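Bit of a strange request maybe. I'm writing a small parser for structure token strings and I need a real example to test against, not something I typed by hand. Could someone generate the tokens for this chain?
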Amino acid sequence: MKCPYCNASDTKVIDSRPADENSSIRRRRQCEKCKKRFTTYEKLETMPLMVIKKDRTRETYERSKIEDGVLRSCHKRPVSTEQINAVIDEIENRIFNMEEKEIETSVIGELVMDKLKDLDEVAYVRFASVYREFKDVNTFMEELGKLLKNK
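Reply from user aminoacidic:
Good idea to test on real output. This should exercise your parser:
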């Protein structure tokens, strides 16, 4: 590791400790030449999760896309930011616990709908109407009927 101050390559680790909820290691280092200290972070390099879209194209997984959908669905609903973040964290944990390199958007959509159904029924119906691309009022009413039947 090169010193960011004098560019010398001889540095030593003074202290190491876990960081970011044990997902990385924070190291305090000192340059042997100029004696200045600096911090580095070591993180496991992983392959990014790929999402397979409906048209079969692939793109890198982005948490922000789930956030956008959930936030839009919960707009003007009695759902707190903490609840929304908890739901998104749960969805993301389920996705990564599958330990797959690729995941279809349909799987993500179903996970989101399952969580929204428990969180807020109106948010669930809003998300489902966009996600399932209801063609007419009858398919929308069928989905509402399923929701009411499962109560």
